[in-house]
Amino acid sequence: MNKLQSLTGKQQRAVLTRLLRYAKPHSKTILLAFALLLLTTIGDVTGPILVKIFIDDYLAHGSFPFEPLLLLGSAYMGIQIVNVLISYFQLYKFQEIALKIIQQLRIDVFSKVQSLGLRYFDKTPAGSIVSRVTNDTEAIKDMFVSVIATFIQSCFLLIGIFAAMFLLNVKLALFCLLVLPLIMAIMVTYRKVSSKFYQDMRERLSQLNAKLSESLQGMSIIQVFRQEERLRQEFGEINEQHFQAGMRNIKADGLLLRPAIDLVYIFALVMVLSYFGISSFENPIEIGVLYAFINYLDRFFEPVNNMMMRLSMYQQAIVAASRVFDLLDDKELAPVQPLDSKNEIKEGEIEVRNLSFSYDGKRDVLKNIEFTVGQGQTVALVGHTGSGKSSIINLLMRFYEFDRGNILIDGISIREYSAEEIRKKLGLVLQDPFLFYGTIKENIRLHNEELTDQDIEEAARFVQADSFIANLEGCYEHQVVERGATLSSGQRQLIAFARTIAANPKILILDEATANIDTETEEAIQSALAKMRKGRTTIAIAHRLSTIQDADLILVLHQGEIVEKGTHQELLTLKGLYYKMYLLQNGLAEGLKDVVS
């Protein structure tokens, strides 16, 4: 659906119906709230009738008996006091239900985000997703808290008011029914006009969040390349578009909400007064009935005005809910693994058979990839940027689904293992590790309660991270800020190594894992990696060929294909692409000229 097109009436009803399903678990509380609402409505409708009795039966006749008037006055005041108390509990219950519904909806949305495949995040800005989880659900909360409760309360009150009107004067009550089509016409017109504007506003707000998120994450690059003015202009343009959409909403609200309803109210008031005025020529009018009708008319338009003023919130909430449901209905899920699989990764032998893959369904980034990694062996993937190295890792880690070829671990398709088994037995260290807000210890443990503090310290010692951790304030309790910004690239990488080693994976996957580590630290890490690889199957992506010379097998990729394979010495002997890369990295330009010639 085009996000700048208005939702049709059918689509809006479908979204509302789906939202109301979230209220089903709270049906008992809702029934209690409705019962309280019914009582408050009875109290609101009874008040003017008691005043009418006082005017017509006592005031008009100049008769003021003490006991009947005391009883009448006590009944009136008692009803008002009880009404206030019941109204409080009724509103409390409705808001409690609303907050519980939004609480569950946010959990559902966040859970859905966790289950989405990386394809979704490749095409959707992070700020846009944040906007749906926060801003859009907040708009839905406003609807449940302010709109639905008000609409239900207003409907109860309107029914009660019309019932009282018919009891007082059937003919005049029928005349008053004439205003209902006018009110419905205003509501329908407002819905059609405002829906597109609110859709536009939500999209612009989403774009604002996306631009803000991107700017905050890339602040260092923005300042280094002096892009502040450009970003200000881009943000200002989106902000202006959001402002213009908001102004269009205000114009629609200003015309079709309170002013239009006030006009209908004046029409109804003139009609009631005209009726009583004409009737007075034939029969004396009852002042109490006149008072009651005008009072009911005023009370009738009060809930109508409340509903109309909340129509804007309703429209925003429906548009926001449609965006949230778009996310909940997205089919770009992470590859599904069987939940009840008993298969276990024991040896760690990997076999890739005739594997081809495309991110967009049009251009293959991997073409007929085939190789085998024996238990405890190390296979290195090398090649220029865009050759497909990381894509192999992405498929092996089940970040993306593939439809051609297969990947087997211990002779069983990777699709036949549970997600828990894959995550437990495959350890990944990326070139740019991500650290969470928390302590060093928490970042290594990652809430794995099976790991003791001693296990964490041994893992850090194993990867040579204990020396710098000991110098931090609080050592393992040192607070890591967002993304580990106060730590060096090498320190973040060492923590990532410790995190992986602590989990004790059967298969180790290194994606340029030593790229951000200085030469001295890298020597220590290479020594640690040599110990880590014993008994573990290892796949390593490397640009620095010096780090993978001892690999059992090196695969050279070019444009998604394996063009060379062999050990370091065997590939040098071939004097092909690997040999050229080796000469370039070692500054042997003369040797490369000989190869080219």
From TrEMBL:
GO annotation, cellular component aspect: plasma membrane
Keyword Cell membrane: no
Pfam families: ABC_membrane, ABC_tran
Membrane-related topology note: Multi-pass membrane protein
Key words, A-Z: ATP-binding, Membrane, Nucleotide-binding, Transmembrane, Transmembrane helix, Transport
Location(s), subcellular: Cell membrane
SMART domains noted in UniProt: AAA
Transmembrane parts of this sequence: 30-50, 70-91, 144-166, 172-190, 255-278
CDD domains (UniProt xref): ABC_6TM_TmrA_like (cd18544), ABCC_Glucan_exporter_like (cd03254)
Database matches in PANTHER family: ATP-BINDING CASSETTE SUB-FAMILY B MEMBER 10, MITOCHONDRIAL, ATP-DEPENDENT PERMEASE MDL1, MITOCHONDRIAL
Domain of life from the UniProt record: Bacteria
Main localization of the protein described in the UniProt heading: membrane
Molecular function per GO: ABC-type oligopeptide transporter activity; ATP binding; ATP hydrolysis activity
Protein name, per record: ATP-binding cassette subfamily B protein
Domain ABC transmembrane type-1, chain residue ranges per copy: 31-316
ABC transporter domain mapped to chain residues: 350-584
